[in-house]
Specification:
The structure holds two protein chains of two kinds. Chain A is globular, with a radius of gyration of 25 Å. Helix content of chain A is 42%, strand content 13%. In chain A, helix 1 (39-61) packs antiparallel against helix 2 (64-78) and helix 13 packs across helix 14. The model of chain A is unreliable at 26-37, 114-134, 250-274 and 549-554 (pLDDT under 50). Chain A has three domains: 5-20 and 169-247, Phosphohistidine domain (Glucose Oxidase, domain 1), CATH 3.50.30; 39-117 and 135-157, PtsI, HPr-binding domain (Enzyme I, Chain A, domain 2, Orthogonal Bundle), CATH 1.10.274.10; 278-545, Phosphoenolpyruvate-binding domains (TIM Barrel, Alpha-Beta Barrel), CATH 3.20.20.60. Chain A is of the alpha/beta class. By secondary structure, chain B is α+β, with helices and mostly antiparallel strands. Chain B has a single domain, classed as Histidine-containing Protein, Chain: A. Chain B has a four-stranded antiparallel sheet. The longest helix of chain B has 13 residues, at 86-98. Chain B is globular. The N and C termini of chain B lie far apart (32 Å). The relative contact order of chain B is 0.26. Residues 1-11 and 105-115 of chain B have low confidence and may be disordered. The chains are: A alpha/beta, B alpha+beta.
């Protein structure tokens, strides 16, 4: 048997697991940077060919009536005119999925008879046509949407590199999309040469109960070698001996049983005392829905929608968005759900749409990225408004710095609401709130009366406040050291929100720390949003921290 | 390589135009458009369409263009073709429109050509 070899790194997600080593990287580097050159062009052409082949296979089995509809879609895909605008966008540097989705949306607008909405003179003519009840030409918009969906799926399907269930993922770092595309129910763990305990993938691993260690340096071993990851101690051990293997819990049977459970089982119905903050779940993937009982929370306080979609083509599909939002609303059975707009850029990449660049945390990310890519924002806005017609849904804008960003996004929502109304699609304009995670916004909440609510993102706020990148282990201690500054600012934020009469909640790791619950409660937060695995621990801490007299609230 | 048909200098031989009125129930929605463009694409010549006296000629082989034109019942369609078999193309396409795209007869054969 090969020699035992233990390496020490930093713990990123607690728990122990052993599994065959899987080394990421070299063989098939999935989805290369799709921003430049002929690559996205080839990807789009291939996706269209695949879609045509699928449609032909369907048409061969279909009855004459259905075959007619499929023929129509095939004919559309064969028409160079259909792809030309998308290819022109690719020439200008857009990724394949964005170019295709946006070009198709323009085409759909054209077909529904409201091509240039700025050119109001064309509207009058189109409006007359829209009156006629069953518009045979409106059917084609549905066909185009179907086609758009099919090609985007084909684009997404091409670039999925998964690894065997139960394996231990070894690499320099791990893209969140790879984590999200993987089925963790068979166990497994993550051992990273670089990485950070504060990265998004670490956050996902903790929420999902997947043991993870970062900062290991070069990890030896070959593919298939048994590797034990101890995410609590921060070690990785190649060829562990028999005893160690035995003590390592085999696959974590219920995936939701995060190691950090509340030590004492409190009655589940024990709601926080009157006046305390509401308790909400934070959701990164639909699998998180299995980790808590919706009856025992006040709702979902944060859905990080950028993690729901593992490929640009999915994030650009209005129907995909809608399907996921529908499921979230249905699972919550009438309780409020707050969804955050795609928070891309910075360290959050979506291959083909946003390239990950940790250096860009001060650049084009969050709402800045969305306003720079309005086609993407419009797709999500439409899906959110269609979902808002089905249940209590609010929308959160990430990384807002100045009021003009909120105004621009509100205008975009209003424009899309008008468009949906024209198309006869049921929709509702949801309340728009902002993330408070940029110090400039945190200090000037009084300038944001247009915001319906506030949600403090402590992870980013801390790194901007301390000028210490959260994924750089060398400066990580500064984040902890700046906690006094953070709490002073939180006090200011709560006071400003109260003065405006707007609810303010807190999401991010701070909310999930039971020892902070008392202080957060005293500050007067209306809600805390925490990962499913931490809900009971925070509930217990809040109950324990309930003061004899209710906190003074305006 | 064989010399292609001469296009320049003898336009009359390879250029043809006709006008036909759309009588099909709704107009050129999905299925009729497929029939029209598939038939148009079966000819080597260019095929263009202009509506109700417009000077705006649309590519008759592009379903996107034909669909986008929202061609309704009663529309006067001018069809013109240029190149090899132009005359044949215009005749076949005009005939397809007159036959209401064979919708009532053969649902299986979308391009309207004889089997």
């Amino acid at each position: 048997m090969a020699a035992r070899c233990e390496q020490r790194g930093q713990p990123a997600s607690p728990g122990r697991a052993v599994g065959p080593l899987y080394r990421a990287g070299e063989p098939a580097e999935a989805a290369g940077p799709a921003g430049s050159g002929g690559e996205p062009r080839a990807a789009l052409t291939a996706a269209v060919e695949r879609a045509i082949a699928e449609l032909r296979a369907l048409a061969a089995k279909a009855d004459a009536e259905s075959a007619g509809i499929l023929d129509f879609q095939i004919e559309l895909l064969l028409d160079g005119e259909l792809l030309a605008p998308a290819l022109a966008r690719i020439e200008r540097g857009e990724g394949a999925a964005l170019a295709f989705a946006a070009a198709m949306n323009e085409r759909i607008d054209e077909v529904t008879g409201e091509a240039g909405e700025t050119a109001s003179e064309t509207d009058s003519e189109a409006d007359e046509d829209e009156e006629a009840e069953p518009d045979p030409f409106a059917l084609r918009a549905a066909d185009l949407r179907d086609l758009q969906h099919r090609v985007l799926d084909a684009l997404a399907g091409r670039t999925r590199a998964d690894f065997p269930p139960g394996a231990v993922y070894v690499g320099r770092d791990m893209p969140p999309s790879v984590f999200l595309a993987h089925d963790w129910s068979a166990g497994g763990a993550i051992a990273l040469g670089a990485g950070s305990a504060a990265s998004h993938v670490a956050l996902l691993a903790r929420a999902r109960g997947v043991p993870m260690v970062v900062g290991l340096g070069a990890v030896p071993g070959d593919a298939g070698d048994p590797l034990l990851v101890d995410g609590t101690r921060g070690t990785a051990c190649l060829h562990p001996d028999g005893g160690e293997m035995a003590t390592a819990p085999a696959p974590p049977s219920p995936p939701s049983s995060a190691p950090a459970r509340a030590p004492v089982a409190f009655p589940a119905s024990l709601a926080p005392a009157v006046g305390g903050p509401g308790l909400f779940a934070t959701i990164d993937t639909l699998a998180d829905l299995d980790g808590f009982d919706p009856a025992h929370v006040d709702g979902v306080g944060l859905v990080r929608t950028e993690f729901l979609f593992t490929h640009a083509a999915e994030a650009l599909s209005e129907e995909r968005h809608l399907a996921v939002y529908r499921r979230l609303l249905a699972a919550l059975g009438g309780k409020p759900v707050t969804l955050r707009l795609l928070d891309l850029g910075g360290d959050k990449a979506l291959p083909g749409l946003a390239e990950g660049d940790p250096a860009a945390v001060l650049g084009l990310r969050g709402v800045r990225f969305l306003l720079a890519h309005p086609d993407l924002a419009r797709i999500q806005a439409r899906a959110l408004m269609r979902a808002a017609a089905l249940g209590p849904l609010s929308v959160l804008l990430p990384m807002v710095t100045v009021p003009a960003e909120l105004e621009a996004m509100a205008l975009l929502f209003e424009e899309e609401a008008a468009r949906l109304a024209r198309q006869g699609v049921e929709a509702r304009l949801p309340p728009l709130g902002i993330m408070v995670e940029v110090p400039a916004a945190a200090l000037t909440l009084d300038l944001f009366p247009q915001a319906a609510f506030f949600s403090v993102g402590t992870n980013d706020l801390m790194q901007y406040l301390a000028a210490a990148a959260r994924d750089n282990p060398a400066v990580a201690p500064l984040c902890a050291g700046a906690e006094t500054a953070m709490f002073r600012l939180l006090d200011h934020i709560c006071a400003s929100a109260r003065a405006l009469g707007r609810p303010v909640s807190l999401c991010g790791d701070l909310a999930a720390r039971p020892e902070a619950a008392g202080r957060l409660r005293a500050l007067g937060f209306d809600g805390l949003s925490v990962p499913p695995g931490q809900i009971e621990a925070v509930r217990a801490a809040l109950a324990g921290a309930a003061p004899n007299s209710p906190p003074g609230r305006g | 390589m064989a010399e292609p048909l001469p296009l320049i200098g003898r336009p009359s031989a390879h250029r043809c135009q006709a006008e036909v009125e759309v009588t099909h129930g709704v107009g050129l929605h999905a299925r009729p458009s497929v029939a029209f463009t598939r038939l148009a694409k079966s000819f080597p010549c260019t095929v263009e369409v202009a509506l109700d006296g417009s000077a705006d000629w649309l590519n008759g082989k592009s379903i996107v263009k034909i669909i986008g034109a929202r061609i309704r019942r009663g529309t006067k369609m001018r069809i013109r073709a240029e190149g090899a078999r132009a005359q044949e193309a215009v005749a076949a396409l005009s005939e397809l429109v007159r036959r209401n795209f064979d919708e009532d007869r053969k649902p299986g054969r979308a391009d309207g050509r004889p089997v």
